[in-house]
Amino acid sequence: MKIDGPFRSADDLELATLSWVHWFNENRLHSSIGYLTPTEKENEYYREINSQRQSAVGELALH
């Protein structure tokens, strides 16, 4: 991620900061989660949770 400076205004700096935050939260590869992006890992997590819930639908619940 490259952020060019110097910035001409506070608005330019704010846009560059928002761009970096978006990259950090959505696009960076993170070594501790298997070199996936945070978004990919989150989607993987919810797919796993939803598949576990669906397989449990047909099972008898013991309450």
Mean pLDDT: 85
User: What class do helices, strands and sheet pairing give?
Assistant: mainly alpha
Overall geometry: elongated
Count of domains: 1
Count of separate DSSP helical elements = 2
Largest sheet: none
- Quote the distance from N terminus to C terminus: 52 Å
Q: Helix and strand succession?
A: HH
Total strand count, please? 0
State the share of residues found in helices, binned by percent. 55-70%
Radius of gyration: 20 Å
Unreliable residue stretches: none
The share of residues in extended strands comes to under 5%
Domain Integrase catalytic: 6-38
InterPro entries: Integrase_cat-core, RNaseH-like_sf
Protein name: Mobile element protein
Pfam families: rve_3
Structural descriptors:
single chain; 63 residues; mainly alpha; 2 helices; RNaseH-like_sf; Mobile element protein; Integrase_cat-core
Task: List the topology elements.
Blueprint: H1 10-26, H2 38-57
Protein name: Mobile element protein
GO biological process, one term: DNA integration
Domain Integrase catalytic: 6-38
